């Protein structure tokens, strides 16, 4: 639709942008003009300017989220258990830590420590017999050139080369 701005991914105002807003608004620019100059939403500029005039500060408020249910030591214990035993379940970790937390909290702590769940094998690993057969196949064809391999590919998958 003409006249509509493309929606940007949300990002906080940088310290530089906050300073620009304060300067431009102090100089008498309208909120709409400041937003257009900075390529930010009018709402973001207005909200920041209201906070600045109300509180006289440009710092974000801390502690606006829910309080943590676990201490740093308990967080380390959660991560340590997952590192020691990769097959441990969230319910086992919860009972070992001894704090009433939901499984999502445990998952979040593990994600913060850059630990991800491991997916099972999609195929069985090679047995020693498989490895030996594969080595023999490769050694038998070690002197082949590109034409020989192309011929093999045509036999195995006729639609691959046209």
UniProtKB/TrEMBL annotation:
**Which Pfam families does this one have?**
HTH_Tnp_Tc3_2
Q: Where is this region: Disordered?
A: 55-74
Q: Which GO terms describe its biological process?
A: DNA integration; DNA transposition
UniProt GO molecular function: DNA binding
Q: Where is the Transposase Tc1-like domain?
A: 76-140
Q: What is this protein called?
A: Transposable element Tc1 transposase
The residue ranges flagged as biased composition, category Polar residues, are 55-68
From the broadest rank down, the organism's phylogenetic lineage runs: Eukaryota, Metazoa, Ecdysozoa, Arthropoda, Chelicerata
Q: Which InterPro entries match?
A: Transposase_Tc1-like (IPR002492)
């Amino acid at each position: 639709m003409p006249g509509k701005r493309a929606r940007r991914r949300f990002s906080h105002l940088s310290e530089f942008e906050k300073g620009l807003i304060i300067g431009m608004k102090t100089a008498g620019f309208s909120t709409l003009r400041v937003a257009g100059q900075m390529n930010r939403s009018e709402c973001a500029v207005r909200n920041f300017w209201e906070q600045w005039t109300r509180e006289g500060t440009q710092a974000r408020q801390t502690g606006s989220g829910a309080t943590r249910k676990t201490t740093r030591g308990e967080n380390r214990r959660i991560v340590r258990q997952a590192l020691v035993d990769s097959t441990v379940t969230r319910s086992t970790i919860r009972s070992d830590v001894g704090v009433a937390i939901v499984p999502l909290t445990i998952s979040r702590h593990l994600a913060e420590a850059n630990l991800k769940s491991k997916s099972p094998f999609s195929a069985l690993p090679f047995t020693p017999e498989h490895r030996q057969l594969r080595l023999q196949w490769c050694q038998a064809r070690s002197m082949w050139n590109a034409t020989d391999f192309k011929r093999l590919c045509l036999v195995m998958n006729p639609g691959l080369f046209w």
